[in-house]
Automatic annotation (TrEMBL):
GO cellular component annotations of the record: plasma membrane
Keyword Iron: yes
All copies of domain ABC transporter, residue ranges: 4-240
Stored PROSITE patterns: ABC_TRANSPORTER_1, ABC_TRANSPORTER_2
Swiss-Prot/TrEMBL keywords: ATP-binding, Cell membrane, Ion transport, Iron, Iron transport, Membrane, Nucleotide-binding, Transport
Descriptive protein name: ABC transporter ATP-binding protein
SUPFAM superfamilies with a match to the protein in the record: P-loop containing nucleoside triphosphate hydrolases (SSF52540)
Subcellular location as annotated: Cell membrane
GO molecular function: ATP binding; ATP hydrolysis activity
C-alpha cells in the first residue's frame, strides 16, 4: 500500500512553476530519497507534501486521503517535516522543545500527562539526547540540534517523516550519526522516510528507492541499485564519475566536469 501518492502535481511560487505534472508513489515503510541538482524542485516537493506551501494543480494523498481534507491536528499526528533551516526559540531547553511534539495530541488547555512525558523521554532516548535534556538548545552543536529536532517530531508519533537535507552543514561524524538514526527510525519503528539529499553515496547506502528530479519533472524513479549509475550522474549532474560496488551498492568517486 502506498503511504503517499500524487497525481499531476504542479507547485508554483507565484508565476514560477517549480514542480510540473509530477506523479509520485511512496510505499509504506520505505526510505525514499529525492535527488537532483540545485533548483530542480526537491525541497519544494517536500513542502508541498507537508502542506507548508500549497500545490497549484493535481492531488496529493496520505493513506488515500487528500491531504487538504485532513484537519491540521490530525495531519500533524500522521506526518512530520524537518526543514533544512529550522529556527528554535532562544532560552528553551532540549526537554521543553521535545515536548512540543505532543501538541497535536492535546487540546489547547490540556497539560502533558504521564503518558506524554514517557513519550518525550522515549523520543530523547531514541535520539540519544537525554544526557543534555536540561541544556539550552542553542548551546548545542549543529548535529546535536538536528537530533533534537528529530526527537521533537518523533514525539509526535507520526508514521511519516520528511527530512530536507538532514546532514547539511554537519561534519562527517554528525552526518553519520544522523543517517544511522534515520535508518534506525525506519527499520525499528517502521516510519516511512522521505528525504532530500545531495550526497549520492549517502543516498546509495541508506535508501530503498530514489526519485531523481530534473527541471521540476521526474527524470527517473526506482530501486537504488538500478537507478544510481555513472550514466545517470553524467546526464543529470554533468560530471564524470568512477563507480565501485560494496554489498551491491554503488559508491561514486568524482573524476571531473564534462
Amino acid at each position: 500500500m502506498n503511504m503517499i501518492s500524487g497525481k499531476n502535481i504542479e507547485i508554483a511560487y507565484e508565476k514560477n512553476i517549480v514542480i510540473k505534472d509530477l506523479d509520485i508513489e511512496i510505499k509504506r515503510g520505505e526510505i525514499l530519497t529525492i535527488l537532483g541538482t540545485n533548483g530542480c524542485g526537491k525541497s519544494t516537493l517536500l513542502k508541498g507534501i507537508s502542506r507548508v506551501i500549497p500545490y497549484k494543480n493535481g492531488t496529493i494523498s496520505l493513506e488515500n486521503e487528500i491531504i487538504h481534507n485532513i484537519n491540521s491536528k490530525e495531519f500533524a499526528k500522521r506526518l512530520a517535516f524537518v526543514s533544512q533551516n529550522n529556527e528554535i526559540p532562544e532560552d528553551i531547553t532540549v526537554e521543553e522543545f521535545v515536548r512540543y511534539g505532543r501538541t497535536p495530541h492535546k487540546k489547547w488547555y490540556e497539560l502533558l500527562n504521564e503518558d506524554d512525558e514517557k513519550i518525550v523521554s522515549w523520543a530523547m532516548e531514541i535520539c540519544k539526547i537525554e544526557k543534555f535534556s536540561k541544556r539550552k538548545v542553542m548551546s548545542l552543536s549543529g548535529g546535536e540540534r538536528q537530533k533534537v529536532w528529530i526527537a521533537m517530531v518523533l514525539a509526535q508519533k507520526t508514521s511519516v517523516l520528511l527530512l530536507d537535507e538532514p546532514t547539511t552543514y554537519l561534519d562527517i561524524c554528525h552526518q553519520f550519526e544522523i543517517m544511522e538514526l534515520i535508518k534506525e527510525l525506519n527499520k525499528k519503528l517502521g516510519i516511512t522516510i522521505v528525504m532530500v539529499l545531495h550526497d549520492l553515496n549517502q543516498a546509495s547506502q541508506y535508501s530503498d528507492r530514489v526519485l531523481v528530479l530534473k527541471d521540476g519533472k521526474k527524470y527517473i524513479e526506482g530501486d537504488t541499485r538500478e537507478v544510481l549509475t555513472k550514466e545517470l550522474v553524467r546526464e543529470v549532474y554533468k560530471v564524470e564519475t568512477e563507480v565501485e560496488y560494496y554489498n551491491e551498492l554503488p559508491y561514486f568517486k568524482l573524476r571531473g566536469l564534462l
